[in-house]
Write a structure and sequence with these properties.
Elements lengths: L1 E5 L3 H12 L3 E5 L3 H8 L10 H10 L3 E4 L3 H4 L4 E4 L14 H13 L4 E5 L7 H15 L7 E5 L9 H6 L3 E5 L3 H10 L1 H5 L3 E5 L1 H32 L3 H9 L20 H14 L5 H13 L2 H9 L8 E5 L14 H11 L3 E5 L4 H8 L4 E2 L3 H5 L4 E4 L11 H7 L4 E4 L6 H6 L3 E3 L5
Parallel strand pairs: 1-2, 1-4, 2-3, 4-5, 5-6, 7-8, 9-10, 9-12, 10-11, 12-13, 13-14
Bound molecules: nicotinamide-adenine-dinucleotide.
Length: about 450
Amino acid sequence: MNIAIVGTGYVGLVSGACFAEMGLNVTCVDIDASKIALLKGGHIPIYEPGLKSIVTKNHEANRLHFTTDLKSVINDISILFIAVGTPSDDEGNADLSAIYSVAESVAENMQNYLLVVTKSTVPVGTTAKIKSLIADKLIERNLGHIEFDVASNPEFLKEGAAVSDFMSPDRVVVGVENDRAKEIMSRLYRPFLLNNFRVLFMDILSSEMTKYASNAMLATRISFMNDIANLCELVGADVSMVRRGVGSDSRIGKSFLYPGAGYGGSCFPKDIKALIKTAQNYGYQMRVLKAVEEVNDLQKEILFRKLLHYFDSQIEGLNIAVWGLSFKPGTNDMRDAPSINLINKLLDHQVNVRVYDPAAMEEAKSYFGDKVHYSADIYDASNNADAVILVTEWKEFRLPNWDILAKIMRKQIVLDGRNIYNAEDLASHGFTYTCIGKK
Ligand SMILES: NC(=O)c1ccc[n+]([C@@H]2O[C@H](COP(=O)([O-])OP(=O)(O)OC[C@H]3O[C@@H](n4cnc5c(N)ncnc54)[C@H](O)[C@@H]3O)[C@@H](O)[C@H]2O)c1
């Protein structure tokens, strides 16, 4: 089977490489010529564990191709996935301009039957709009007789574990409106069915909604736990204990109950906003989700507030080391990362900021330019520092050498935004330690 994936970002590239790994002939299409040139030259434009080896292997095996020219492949494929970005617009709606631009070029160039599948996260009703856009355009071209179907196949992979998530998904959700599309999508996902993963077929509107509802539920758990953590601090409880107690209930489960510096990334913030907007467009208010957003906005400031509190608001001129910049470990993605709010606030207060991240240093330059010092490692970042602030819990930050840090830092203060360190351990090395949700 020949397929194309339009949009070669985190989702498009991972999906394309994984489908090629299953033996399909895949072309990844993107309008970004420099990205396509990099990929053709064997370079991977994003950091994602395990991705480089499967991209290289399948590219060399001639199963994975890259192009900027959709027209050159559109009539040799049976499925076209749309995996372009759907960022927030100024009002918080999902900006669907890239989606419709792909739909337009599909309609302008297709000559044969095609199944057009939305893999991007799109508001309920978008796939139906793509269908009418293509149908209208084909009629305009006097090609109204060409048959096509649309389907929705939202993606649930997590950055940092994208390849394994794609290869071993909890479930695959597919929205279809007829048996022909169902049969093609069943064939596509047969290798996954062989491994007993669940492929859930449903109608297209429900499929589109499932993606938003899933992200909304995960974001809700995070904000809920951050709210509980903040209350724990006030009443003297320990949120790590509370989390274990709550998560051990099999009705609740352990995932996404970790308090921290707020959720970020390319999905939760924009998807929560878009779902609130969708509801408003239907005259309905998503009251829970508005609170989820409000809690998260406040939580993104918590490390800054703790620093102010510790230094009695006298932070001008301090040297602060920031460990971790990406929105979570395992990725270089900094979109809406809590580190951005924190660092901008520090810079506003004339703090000298020294940053280190194992994967996101290049990315960081587009956010902070020459306003921060880019360090070689956590020790370089902490040299002469008045405090360390841990924002992203990369594995390599788990067991730093506190003896060295105690010697090279000006003041021995650690603000732990992810609760990964042990207070007694740090105290034994002479550190003052503060984390989230404990007195
Ligand atoms: N990143 C994730 O973890 C994740 C997970 C699940 C779902 N999603 C959803 O998947 C979609 C893609 O997300 P992403 O993170 O991969 O985005 P991304 O920004 O990494 O990649 C999008 C790509 O689309 C390309 N593009 C834009 N307009 C185009 C056009 N007209 N033709 C061809 N290419 C075009 C861009 O150049 C870019 O390379 C979004 O809707 C997102 O919400 C993302």
